[in-house]
Known about the structure:
Radius of gyration: 18 Å
Bound molecules: zinc ion
Distance between the termini: 15 Å
CATH superfamily of the largest domain: lpxc deacetylase, domain 2
Order of helices and strands: EEEEEEEEHEHEEEEEHEHEEHEEH
Helix content: 10-25%
CATH class of the largest domain: Alpha Beta
Largest sheet: 5 strands, mixed
Shape: globular
CATH topology of the largest domain: lpxc deacetylase, domain 1
Amino acid sequence: MLFKETCQNTIQNDITVSGIGLFTGEKVKITIHPAKADHGIVFKRVDLLNKPILKADLNLVREANRRTLVGSGKNYVQTVEHILSAFAAYNIDNALIEIDGSEVPVFDGSSKIFADLIEEAKVQKLDQKAKVLSLKEPVYFSENYIHLIALPSNEYKISFTLHHPSSEFLKSQYFSYTVDKKTYKTEIAPSRTFSVYEEIKPLLDKNLIKGGSLKNAVVIKDNKVMNEGGVRYDNEMVRHKILDLMGDLSLIGTRFLAHIIAIRSGHLSNIKFAKKLLTYLQGGEI
Ligand SMILES: [Zn+2]
């Protein structure tokens, strides 16, 4: 159902920034350009032959294990969720992201830099209307202990429960937030990705997290935060789960209004849920 119409947005000015990828450890440069209406959020792998483009599209998600990866063959981009989350918060519907590597830089593990850069580049309204879809009935995804429910609502809101029984430190965290760029900047964007050291040790041993360090992730070891300065919020981890969920859901490619209630979800379940939600929003059978 079409809820209301508003204008599509892009950014006013180009933004260029460099950093390393969390998984690849490679230094990558990205330049974000304004784009016209109905262009969508599109990556361009300028390091590859013929500089192929790649749309940030749910149907192009190839992997969702610890990060979200879109694309096929050599033309893929991974760890797209943090930049996409910031675009969603600022209602940026259209942008071209030139990238000279396979992974969006992780910076400090949050989306703060992307929110700051969008503000610096300024949001540009376009003349064309943006679709904002809404629900008439709940849509849900439920598998074992993971539950994701979209309730009809006249605002975009996320309520998340993180439950990590194996970690005395994490235990359970809850946060609820109505999506809005100002609140995003202060309450969500600064929250960093996190790991329980004992869980990622096998990946570190296999050198599968080449760029990971205390500079770009909160690491919990022996039930203590290893990072100097500790956490940015008492419940920083659940806030980051909301940040990730917003990025994953933005791959739907159309704005929507719903109250999303998420319990213990991660990228893989976020993507499965997003596909159900997209089917519903397109008027299909779920
Ligand atoms: Zn994340």
